[in-house]
Amino acid sequence: MVRTSNVSGTFIASKNRLAEGPTYDARTHRFYWVDITNNQINWIEYDDPETIHRVKTNHPVGVIALTSQPNKLLVGAKLGFGFVDLTTPIETAEIDYVLKVHTEEPDASELRFNDGYVDAKGRFYAGSMVDLGFEEKPIGKLYCFDFSKNTANVVETGLTVPNGMGWSPDNKIMYHTDSPRSTIYQYDYDLETGAMTNRRVFVKVNFEGVAVPEPDGLCVSQDGSVWTAIFSTSTVQRYSPQGELLEEITFPAPRVTCPALVGPNYNELVVTSMSLYNERPNYHELAKTEQGEGGNLFKTVLDGVVGIPRNLVNID
């Protein structure tokens, strides 16, 4: 039997256009997320959710990774991989690219990086996709960026919207999502080499009343459960390691985007969301009348569930 619950109220009233990438750093107790459409990196001190810090970047940032230097973030952005240093307060930042990959693509102007994750050896996986406003087509790629070698190897091609990824607690299985295919895939994963083999369907998402449900961001808990936000709904689903639907949690936003298990005890499920008026120029006025709390972040404390701390990219 699938367990269901509802969450009311807002954790962070950010009113972003497209909030994604929730990331908690236990070293500093900072909680980061991005607003892709607004070219913003946001963060709070975790115990002070009402004070939102925002940095405007010169290019959209799809995903952030924690590094061995607290407050210095490695990002997957419009053109590739680079740094944004938030050690000191700033309002705007130029992304310090260390490796540009989209300049070599035939459709470079259409592409940007979307979701990603760091494995237990510090490899930064991130997927590229056609940006909003362009025709959707399967020209995205999944890259594995190794900072120590300054290389980004292509490990998957033909992706439309590469999205949530993560690893099983023993790092033997890797998960990766292609949203328009309603599918979360899994691979056998060799942590020592980074080899991904034997791709197969982990879950083909079904959602009542939605013809093509889109699994978006995901996270994995210590019991091996996979938590995924179903973008075209208000719901986060939890699956067992065998792909059985265990739980559905509904939030007060029509388009949830990514879940993360965060906080001092890693038992707080925080979920980002998107505004329905994401692509419209008069967004700020329209957002005032939006039904639900699209663009805000939400939180619920879970019983008996513990998340896995974020891995770091070693840049020292």
Automatic annotation (TrEMBL):
The active site is at D216 (proton donor/acceptor). Keywords: Metal-binding, Zinc. Its cofactor is Zn(2+). GO terms for molecular function: calcium ion binding; gluconolactonase activity. Binds 1 divalent metal cation per subunit. The keyword Membrane does not apply. Residues 18-274 form the SMP-30/Gluconolactonase/LRE-like region domain. Gene3D superfamilies: TolB, C-terminal domain. Substrate binds at R112, N114. It comes from the Eukaryota. InterPro entries: 6-blade_b-propeller_TolB-like (IPR011042), SGL (IPR013658), SMP-30 (IPR005511). It holds the Pfam family SGL. A divalent metal cation binds at E20, N163, D216. Belongs to the SMP-30/CGR1 family. This is SMP-30/Gluconolactonase/LRE-like region domain-containing protein. It comes from Geotrichum candidum.
